[in-house]
Design a protein that fits this description.
Strand content: over 45%
Shape: elongated
CATH architecture: Beta Barrel
Largest sheet: 8 strands, antiparallel, barrel
Number of helices: 2
Number of domains: 1
Number of strands: 11
Helix content: 10-25%
CATH topology: Porin
Length: 235
């Protein structure tokens, strides 16, 4: 079954009614650009005129319940059920502190591998733009951090298929089908533990309200992450 035939046979998966034309391309460009922008900012901003520039990367998980829907995805009478949200997520981001305790930041978080969703594969990509507040530090090595902002979630769906013939044997393909976009409101709280100079480890909890996140059971999605990062200009 080729990609176009798979699209025609998918019936009842309402996510495809929420497609935004070319939205997937814009999200992909933004996700690839964010880390580069923070690296350039960190390399070009003079620390004398800024309170701090940080970049980080981490691993964790985002969780949500199943919507408990049974879907005849291919219109052949076979019912596939929607899963819980889970798996390993990677988090990449950075922040720029204009003042000692106040700044701005941006980040993206995405499922490292594709998961199964009602007979298809899926990968959620979350992205946010935040105000960053660092209250008075407990010590020079322990710095609490609170973030709040807005962003979006891009739910990407894929069709996995296998082909076999007598000449080349068997091969598999994983084709992108559609995406669904959702607005979100983001809140996060964490603590940075500076282990040496600007190197830090940050356990963090994120909470997102994702508007009309009908693919799963709740619009409230918590995420638990441990980041490792570096603050430029810190001694």
């Amino acid at each position: 079954m080729n990609n176009q035939r798979a699209k025609r046979n998918i019936k009842g998966l309402n996510v495809f009614e929420h497609k935004i034309p070319r939205g997937d391309f814009r999200v992909e460009i933004m996700i690839r650009t964010l880390p580069v922008l923070f690296i350039l900012m960190a390399c070009n901003v003079r620390t004398a005129s800024a309170q701090g520039v940080s970049a980080y990367i981490g691993l964790g998980t985002a969780q949500d319940s199943s919507s408990n829907q049974g879907i005849d995805t291919y219109g052949d009478g076979n019912i596939y059920y929607t899963p819980r949200l889970g798996g390993v997520f990677m988090n990449i981001g950075g922040d720029f502190m204009f003042f000692p305790h106040l700044g701005v930041g941006a980040e993206t978080s995405f499922r490292v591998t594709q998961g199964g969703y009602a007979g298809l594969n899926y990968r959620p990509i979350l992205y946010d733009f935040n105000a960053v507040w660092e209250p008075a530090p407990v010590s020079s090595r322990i710095v609490p951090e609170i973030q709040g902002g807005i962003g979006g979630v891009n739910m990407r769906f894929y069709y996995n298929s296998q082909y076999c013939d007598q000449f080349a044997g068997c091969s598999s393909s994983n084709s992108y089908l559609e995406s669904s976009n959702h607005f979100d409101v983001h809140f996060a709280a964490g603590v940075r533990f500076y282990v040496k100079n600007g190197i830090f480890v940050e356990p963090r909890v994120d909470l997102r309200y994702i508007h009309n996140f009908f693919q799963f059971g709740s619009d409230l999605v918590p995420e638990y992450t441990v980041n490792v990062g570096y603050t430029f200009g810190r001694h």
